[in-house]
Amino acid sequence: MVGIGASNLRERSETLITVENLTVEFPGPRGATVQAVSDVSFDVQAGETLGIVGESGCGKSTTAKAIIQMPEPTSGVVTYRDSDLTTLDKAELRRMRTDLQMIFQDPISALNPRRSVWDIIREGPEIWGTEDVWTEQRLVQLIESVGIDPQYRDRKPFQFSGGQCQRIGIARALALDPEVLICDEPVSALDVSVQAQILNLLDDLQTEHDLTMLFISHDLAVVRNVSDRVMVMYLGRIAEIGDADSIFDNPVHPYTTALLSAVPGSGVRDDGSLSGELPSPLDPPSGCRFHTRCSDATEVCATTVPEFTKFGADHWAACHHPQGTPVTLRDL
């Protein structure tokens, strides 16, 4: 899947999801608080794929799940089209979630082991009374479109491989005619050869069903191939966000540079920034949360949260000492 570039997307599309000052906290041990996501703001354009990357525990999955209010944010606003999802009652939110479907990391455990593939996929149309639209013939076509032979539709999930179960999960999501597909590490549990098949399938289905996608992964090589824009997260905050080519070719945040240095063939030199211990979200560092591992950190990094600065037409980073030159309107 090759991104077309966010600048082109904005010329032809609209803002579909807007996240403003999203914060998600969980109760921790001995009365402490886990600061999973802290004051995160971004938008998602209709028809694009936004890749979300970062180390384990950086808050990328929690951010995506909080969009559909699973879990409910501690504070902040999530707007889908004209609806603030944080203010909807349970019935309204349940209905809205049919438009925002999720594909999970572990495809086997995400499926009910007691039900047949056919029952799993047709359950959504049955619940929402859309059997007149999702006829048996159309459901069979959907199963075929994700690469599952309909003759095996009466089998249970344990009778399929991990890659086949992920295809079934994708079909289940598409049977609700969603507009947004949230992919939470959808290929991390699969063999490399199967990963490519699933990624190609998602590419085809995005075009066929006119989907907007959030693609969460720790694999930067995969993210570059599938994303139009990329959001880099560190310890619950956004470090850098923008057009995928700009982020990968000209990273300006030291954390982004450190991540890319671990990708074979990236051409980015390892500066040793990630050699330290990842701080705990129970007690994240003050100021820039990356300053405890950053070789460029100074006193201001430890005391002041950095604001976002523009480094391209669609490229922003929150850093006191960026590895690039900010741009002005005159530069653009």
Description:
With 332 residues, the protein is of the alpha/beta class. It has a domain at 6-230: P-loop containing nucleotide triphosphate hydrolases (Rossmann fold, 3-Layer(aba) Sandwich). Helices cover 30% and strands 23% of the residues. It is built from eleven helices and twelve strands. The protein has helices at residues 6-12, 60-67, 90-96, 117-128, 136-145, 162-174, 192-209, 220-226, 244-249, 254-261, 299-303, and strands at 15-27, 33-45, 49-53, 75-80, 83-84, 100-103, 180-184, 212-216, 229-234, 237-243, 308-312, 315-318. The chain has an eight-stranded mixed beta sheet with strand order 6-7-8-3-9-10-12-11, sandwiched between helices. Strands 2-1-4-5 form a four-stranded antiparallel beta sheet. Helix 4 (117-128) runs parallel beside helix 6 (162-174) and helix 6 packs parallel to helix 7 (192-209). The chain is globular and about 65 Å long. The two termini are 28 Å apart.
Helix and strand string, N-terminal first? HEEEHEEHEHHHEHEHEEHHHEE
Give the distance, in angstroms, between the N- and C-terminal Cα atoms.
28 Å
* SS-based class: alpha/beta
Contiguous uncertain segments of 5+ residues: 1-12
Mean pLDDT: 89
Proportion of helical residues? 25-40%
Question: What does the largest sheet look like?
Answer: 8 strands, mixed
CATH homologous superfamily title of the domain at 6-230:
P-loop containing nucleotide triphosphate hydrolases
Roughly what fraction of the amino acids lie in strands? Answer: 15-25%
Q: Major sheet: order of its strands? A: 6-7-8-3-9-10-12-11
* Count, helices: 11
Here the CATH topology of the domain at 6-230 equals Rossmann fold
Mass-distribution shape: globular
- From the 3D coordinates, which CATH architecture of the domain at 6-230 would you assign? 3-Layer(aba) Sandwich
**Under the CATH scheme, which class of the domain at 6-230?**
Alpha Beta
Number of strands: 12
Radius of gyration: 21 Å
